[in-house]
Write a structure and sequence with these properties.
- The chain has one domain: Rossmann fold, CATH 3.40.50.
- Helix 1 packs across helix 3 and helix 4 crosses helix 5.
- A two-stranded parallel sheet has the order 1-2.
- The protein is elongated.
- The longest helix is centred in the middle third of the chain and has 15 residues.
- It is mostly helical.
């Protein structure tokens, strides 16, 4: 969670539809004002999209999470990056680190019943992280046989 607009909007939509799922939010440990109940003067996290020290929708988000019987918890940058890599390797999804925070929270804290993790940002939103964690490029000719040989070698 960064500015907390998404959780606020989701809660309003669910409420208008007449359903009340539990909403859980996860903030990076170095940028977790909602977890700690106070603004963070210099937020720090690898997840740039949630590097927010004073969320714009603070009160609304806390109301949504409380009303839904959910909670907001912290996850470390290491946990976020582990989830970021897992989502790419296992599911083939290229998300940004901030989006992987929800998966990191699920991995850290677990859950009961059906769970939906919402990943809102594409990996190209933060190409620096992707490039810093990627394996080296293997050059090959732009032909199917050359690509198969490079991948399967």
């Amino acid at each position: 969670m960064g500015n907390a607009g998404n959780v606020t909007s989701w809660w309003r939509g669910f409420s208008e539809y007449g359903v009340t799922p539990r909403l859980h939010g996860y903030q990076a440990e170095g940028a977790a004002p909602l977890v700690h109940g106070a603004p963070v003067e210099r937020p720090e996290t690898v997840a740039s999209a949630i590097r927010i020290g004073n969320p714009a929708r603070w009160e609304d988000a806390m109301g949504a999470v409380t009303s839904s019987r959910g909670e907001i918890r912290p996850v470390s940058d290491e946990e976020i990056l582990a989830a970021y890599e897992l989502v790419g390797a296992r599911e083939g999804l290229f998300c940004e680190p901030a989006s992987a925070a929800s998966v990191a929270g699920l991995m850290k804290y677990g859950a009961h019943g059906t769970v939906v993790c919402v990943l809102t940002g594409h990996g190209l939103k933060d190409p620096t992280t992707a490039m810093s964690r990627a394996a080296s490029v293997i050059p090959c000719e732009p032909e199917l046989a050359a690509v198969e040989e490079a991948v399967l070698a």
